[in-house]
Amino acid sequence: MNTVSSGEEISLDAVAPELVLALAAVAVLLLGSWLPRRRQYLAGWGALASVVAALILSMARLTGPAELTAAGTFSIDVSLNLVRIAVLAGTAVVILLAGDRFAGDKRESEFYVLLLLAALGTLVLAGASDLLVLGAGYLLASIPLYALAGYAKDSRGTEGMLKYYLMGALFGVLLLFGIALLLGAGGSTSYADLARTLPYAPTGVAAVGLLSVAAGLLFKAGAVPAHFWVPDAIDGTTGPAAAFISTIPKVGALVALFRISSLAGLPPGWPLILALLAAATMTLGNLAAFFQDRVLRLLAYSTISQVGYLLMIVAAAGHSTLARPSLLFYLLAYTVTNLGVFAVVCAFPDHRTLNDYTGLFRRHRWLSLSLIISLLGLIGTPPTAVFVGKLTAFTAALDAGLGWLVILALANSVASVFYYLRWIHRLFQAPPASTSGTTTAAARTWGGRTAVALAILSLALGLSTNPLLRLL
Which residues, at least 6 apart from 241, have a Cβ–Cβ distance to it below 8 Å? Predict the structure, then answer.
């Protein structure tokens, strides 16, 4: 295990990726304010370059020693470094997808600024080792997403944005309330101090505080009972924004919840509470997705069910040595696979329902194959990356004595085949009599190229699992 060093001051080298994102958000905002509308695309390329630079810095630190910086409030370790890679790579993909959708838009640069700020907040969430930093990360990862959800300014997007904002405000207050309770019960907001003091704190106060903090993180992840905003926000926004909202914030929220669940001295029923939430989340997401015909709404419920499988690993925190590497690999696999599906959706922005994909295989075979690989990946079909993620998740849960949850997760995985195959079946049906000209043009966009690349990457991760798991 890596040794952990701590410093009272912020190590600029250790937080270089976060600094790059923060400075880039300011620079892109100023650049977009000065550029004429026909040259707003330069802001997008600037945002993409900054994300790639931050990604390179993160990969360079992947095998570096763990350390605590900023007076022990921010952890630089394998977990954060892998989250950085997943979040930054995912943000780069969304920027490429947004280039097709917002080219020439008068607010194009604002979209990129919101992406950069939300990605920065997600990284702060994942690396926080102090409850105050966790609260700051929650706000930074939430407020830009409210604007992204309502970016289209239509009735559906406005409704989804309002639900997202109101739910976020409610669970944000719960999170801050939980921080106050834990400060009073444990005498500190530092994770390390709380691990020593919570065992001697009043059990009821500590339990309510932990549940309140977890409620805020469950909202960010889109898990039960904080999931009600997910279908409306994702279905009401644009394709690139939906891709980001349904994927990136979950990475930081689940790693943050895993850090808290790994603390010593938690109430004895904590793993069972998380296991019950995982069971409810995966089951509700699958059942609600069964007869959805709108593509984004189906993917919204699909992402809820995926969070249920990921929560199963969080429930095993502290009870299985496989829990952390399993969670990190699953998050990386899910990011690649889910964005692969959304890349196809962004390639065909006019295809809002499953029926719109009828006969697509005959016209765009490579894109159809990419969509099939990504959808089968979300099911957990070998040799895709999510299959390995689910396999390690089931193993970690079994090690933690959660055999009943593994059986339920297997049943849910089998049940999910139904609604994913409904989509795949449409691809091979006889195409409609007339074909829209926009469909042919869409195949040549960034969305199409990105979808093929992500499908290949999903297979590559699934086939090269052992080296990455050993690294984790």
Answer: 111, 148, 149, 151
One DSSP character per residue, 249-263 reads: HHHHHHHHHHHHHTS
Q: Are 374 and 458 in contact (CB under 8 A)?
A: yes
**CA atoms lying within 13 Å on the CB side of residue 356:** 16
Question: pLDDT (tens digit, 9 = 90+) per residue, 344-402?
Answer: 999 998 898 999 999 888 888 899 999 999 999 999 999 999 999 999 999 999 999 99
- What average pLDDT does the structure give for the chain? 89
Nearest residue to 283 (alpha-carbon basis) of 404, 462, 400, 160: 404
Q: Reply yes or no: is the peptide bond before residue 199 cis, omega within 30 of 0.
A: no
CB 340 within 8 A of CB 377: yes
Nearest residue to 15 (alpha-carbon basis) of 183, 194, 137: 137
Residues with Cβ within 8 Å of residue 354, at least 6 apart in sequence: 293, 295, 298, 422, 423, 426
Q: d(Cα 19, Cα 231) in Å, to the nearest integer?
A: 33
Instruction: Locate the domains of the chain by residue range.
Output: 280-472
